[in-house]
Design a protein that fits this description.
With about 170 residues, this protein is α/β, with parallel strands linked by helices. The protein has one domain: Spore Coat Polysaccharide Biosynthesis Protein SpsA, Chain A (Alpha-Beta Complex), CATH 3.90.550. It has helices spanning about 10-20, 25-30, 45-50, 60-70, 85-95, 115-120, 130-140, 145-150, 165-170; strands at about 1-10, 30-40, 55, 75, 80-85, 100-105, 130, 155-160. A 5-stranded mixed β-sheet has the order 3-2-1-4-7. Strand 2 (about 30-40), helix 3 (about 45-50) and strand 3 (about 55) form a beta-alpha-beta unit. The N and C termini lie far apart (about 35 Å). The mean pLDDT is about 90. InterPro entries: Nucleotide-diphossugar_trans (IPR029044). This is Glycosyl transferase. One of its GO terms (molecular function) is transferase activity. It comes from Shinella pollutisoli. Keywords: Transferase.
Length: about 170
């Protein structure tokens, strides 16, 4: 039903955080596969991905990545982002009745400072759920995941997500 796709570069700890949050989806049987697109990591990102059973790609064409996804829906995430309790049900409900893309609600416990909220937020901060068919129709070979998430028209899911930047704040990075 669902393929998770992330881009990373030296995000070993963040990748581990996100993958641990996705276990509920794997247990429920909705996560079919996870694809990690690496942009030149020199840390243990590949080992984390391998231990979790992810496909770890160092070279790719985005059209081929979308085409090879096992799920009918794609969930694009930033390493370090963590969907919170209830995300599985929210995604299942969405794909059962909706055809358009969606994103998670921002975590009420992890809000950016006021001035940051006034600026445009990164496209993947709240994840991006899109059908494989829609992604296939709009994806270009050199496209990054964030560009795919900028398509607009996304519905807000009732489930929250802790953004990737929150992990860096907690670690003091």
């Amino acid at each position: 039903m669902l393929t998770i796709i992330m881009e990373c570069r030296d995000n070993e700890a963040e990748l581990a955080q996100t993958l641990s949050a996705l276990v509920a989806g794997a247990v429920e049987g909705i996560v079919r596969d996870v694809i990690v697109l690496d942009r030149g990591s020199r840390d243990g990102s590949s080992k984390v991905a391998d231990a979790a059973g992810c496909r770890f790609l160092t070279e790719w064409d985005m059209k081929d990545v979308v085409r090879s996804a096992r799920g009918d829906w794609l969930l694009l995430l930033e390493p370090g982002a963590r969907p919170l309790a209830g995300w599985v049900d929210a995604v299942v409900d969405h794909v059962a009745i909706e055809k358009r893309p969606a994103h998670f609600s921002g975590s009420r416990s992890h809000r950016p400072p006021l001035f940051s909220r006034l600026r445009r937020r990164p496209a993947l901060e709240r994840g991006y759920l899109v059908s494989k068919r829609q992604a296939s129709a709009t994806v270009a070979s050199g496209m990054a995941l964030a560009e795919m998430a900028k398509r607009g028209g996304a519905r807000r899911l009732v489930a929250e997500i802790v953004p990737a930047w929150a992990m860096k704040v907690m670690r003091g990075a």
